[in-house]
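Researcher: Here's the sequence for the chain we discussed earlier.
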Amino acid sequence: MPSSLESIRHLSETLFQYSNVDDMVSQVLRTALEVIGQDAGSILLADEKTKQLVFRYVVGENADCLHGTSIPWDKGIAGAVFFSGQAEVIPAVQQDIRHFSATDRITGYQSRDMIVVPLKRYGGAPIGVIEVLNKVTGQINRDDLDLLVVIASIAAAAIEHTNNAEVLRQKDLQLQQSQKMEAMGRLAGGVAHDFNNLLTVMQGFTELIVSTLDPAAASKRYADELMKVAKQASGLTNQLLAFSRKQVLEPRDVNLNDLVSNIETILRRLIGNDVVLFTNLDPHLGRIKADPGQIEQVIMNLCVNARDAMPRGGSLTIETAMIELDDSRCRDAPDLRPGQYVLLSVADTGSGMDQATQAKLFEPFFTTKAPGKGTGLGLSIVYGIVKQSHGHVTVTSEVGQGTTFTIYLPQAEAPLSDGRIADLATAVDQKSGQEPVRSE
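Model: Thanks. This is the structure I predict for it:
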């Protein structure tokens, strides 16, 4: 049987070869139990978004009930060790006032004593904890603690390395997707602009022809049909211009709640009787600076898309809220900056989408509908309008679990009141050493 030092050396040599954190923590915990001579334990990793310590791997009798289990990261012995960053030997677990039953429940062990060590590399902050449980009091000692600290340090360095590599990979994919959409936008915009010019000439000459024809002539009907098709084609090019963000917008301060309320009746008719519409509008919503007509089009396009995903009926929820995005929440969206945003969410209970579909969702002419059932421009228009309004759109979906589109639009700066303008002018005058000019 290999010695403790040989096991740790083997761990340090192989751990950085893993690309999957779950496989990594599995080897870490099994090595730790082998080195210390125990047969139960767990590894919990911190989730900054939920502020939970999530059980990522457990060795014990009830390990099958691990999935999705977590505890608040400031509760229990694990939480205390995570926040202090100091390893502990707990000689009598059941008598410790910080004892939290989650570990016992998951492992199926009634632990007598245990070691809890923060997962952190030397000089770094904890990213989780590792627990080793003992059923018989007195077997865990200081040497075991030191060995587990070394293992935890190796594990933390490897996990951070893997997570950083994954973050870089995701950012690279986002950059590639962004560049692809930008290139498609330029191409679509260029083609649409030139084609629109041709259509303008076509419509002009067609109008001249129509004006010279006898209203009762058959050729008049043909010319009218030609005019109708030309107008439809012009509408198509305008949709492409929306995707390419080359539309002429008329932005102004807008309350998103008002827009939703104004078109709610139309939306109910649009989605039909089989789909129930719910609205949850934040009464303290800030204003955005956008073209109200275009934002209404965004909402209607998303609702039509949701309706088509629920052929047998379902529910559709439109929600608005204020949200503040910090640096950590903007990492996944390079086009967002920290600050106050107005959130618009459109969620359905429809068929949902797989990852391959989501990857192409905003591309022009991409559609999952049958031929002749859609142009494939609805969501690309949403994308273009949101981007042109300096916002960001995301989609979360699972097959059979529905879809949620979330749009972030920057809150408009509040206009300065006359009193505030006077205060600022006074402050400027005082700073320059001049007496403020007062109007009589």
